[in-house]
Automatic annotation (TrEMBL):
GO cellular component, one term: efflux pump complex
Protein's name according to its UniProt entry: Membrane fusion protein, multidrug efflux system
Domain CusB-like beta-barrel: start-end pairs: 205-275
Species, as recorded: Chryseobacterium oleae
Ranges of residues in domain Multidrug resistance protein MdtA-like barrel-sandwich hybrid: 72-191
SUPFAM superfamilies (alphabetical): HlyD-like secretion proteins
GO MF entries: efflux transmembrane transporter activity
């Protein structure tokens, strides 16, 4: 009885021991496999990625422009004379035709009186010789000389009247007057600026665009801009361009205009000008600029293929400070690496940790 019972127990224990031995052997085999897998994962470079997708483009280029007044003129004197009157307040608004300065006109008026007296005498002489010529009492030459004398004095009188009119300097258009550079009693000479007058009812914006954007610039087109004083956006209309490009910068000078309602703009302010650089309905793949890897032959990007990084040459149609538009080299659905760019190489094992 004892022998039979022991035999039965051994029969049960032997299979159990076999199962335990097999289990331990499997655990010993799986442990190195797990360790190897964990080691392989830690050896992969963690990277951020984005998935390339076609999207509609609404791209804009931003350039810096300068605000200019609609009209501007430097007021000058046409005569060398002394100023006898300043008829405006510095920095005020003046109407077209308003008197700005008066110059000394005493000598011109005296000469006019002298010429007037001589002209009366010349007219009397001309009329007398005309009557005598009819009776052939005088020679025709004497009459001709009297006529020429009268015409010469008339011309001198006209010239003096023109000079007299120049002694009063008027505003050529309505606008804001600047600070006078001369004062009462100052002696001025022709061509020396006395004060600046600006018409700021409208503001012109001058800016330059690169030659690649020439097809996008046309008279009548709209631009948007912001001023340095605020982030509010305004619109302006392109009114003119230079006939040719600047030979050094290969850029086109463009001028736009906008109403200066409320006088919020001033000449000389900088303006950040935005204009569309993509055609209506255009599509493309847009990626952040940090994904670009510059090279000798252009730019490349790294994509993930079978767990490793692979460089792909690309063609860029446009680039801003933050994004670039890809026209070839990338297909929709590609996983583009956007981080750890300096540690990447062809075939580097990578692991995507963030999908943007």
């Amino acid at each position: 009885m004892l022998y039979k019972y022991s035999t039965q127990r051994l029969g049960v224990l032997i299979p159990l021991l076999g199962i335990l031995l097999i289990g331990c052997e499997n655990k010993e085999k799986k442990a190195p496999e797990k360790a190897a897998t964990a080691q392989a994962d830690t050896s992969k470079l963690p990277v951020d990625i984005i998935i390339a997708q076609q999207q509609q483009l609404n791209q804009e280029e931003a350039v810096v422009g300068t605000m200019m007044p609609y009209r501007e003129v430097s007021i000058v004197s046409e005569l060398p004379q002394k100023i006898t009157q300043v008829s405006f307040k510095d920095g005020s608004y003046v109407r077209q035709g308003a008197v700005l300065y008066k110059l000394n006109d005493a000598d011109i008026r005296s000469r006019l009186k002298q010429i007037g007296a001589e002209l009366k005498l010349a007219q009397l002489s001309k009329n007398r010789l005309s009557n005598l010529l009819k009776t052939e009492t005088v020679r025709p030459q004497e009459y001709d000389e009297a006529v020429m004398r009268f015409q010469s004095l008339t011309a001198q009188q006209e010239l003096l009247r023109v000079d007299l009119a120049k002694t009063v300097i008027h505003a050529p258009f309505s606008g804001k007057i600047g600070i006078s550079k001369v004062h009462l009693g100052a002696y001025v000479t022709p061509g020396i600026g006395l004060v600046t007058l600006q018409d700021q009812s409208s503001i012109k914006i001058n800016f330059s665009v690169p030659e690649k954007y020439l097809p996008l610039i046309h008279v009548g087109g709209q631009i948007r801009f912001t001023a340095e004083l605020s982030d509010q956006e305004y619109s302006a209309t392109i009114i003119a361009t230079e006939p040719g490009l600047d030979a050094e910068s290969r850029s086109l000078q463009v001028q736009a205009i906008t109403q200066n309602t409320g006088g919020k703009f001033r000449a000389g302010l900088s303006a950040k000008v935005y204009f569309h650089v993509s055609d209506k309905g255009a599509t493309g793949i847009m990626i952040p600029t940090e994904a670009l890897a510059p090279g000798e032959k252009g730019y490349t990007v790294f994509v993930i293929k079978n767990g490793v990084a692979k460089p792909k040459p690309i063609t860029i149609s446009n680039r801003t400070e933050t994004h670039a538009v890809i026209t070839s080299g990338i297909a929709t659905g590609d996983s583009i690496i956007v981080s750890n760019m300096l540690r990447l190489g062809d075939g580097t094992p990578v692991k995507a940790v963030i999908s943007k």
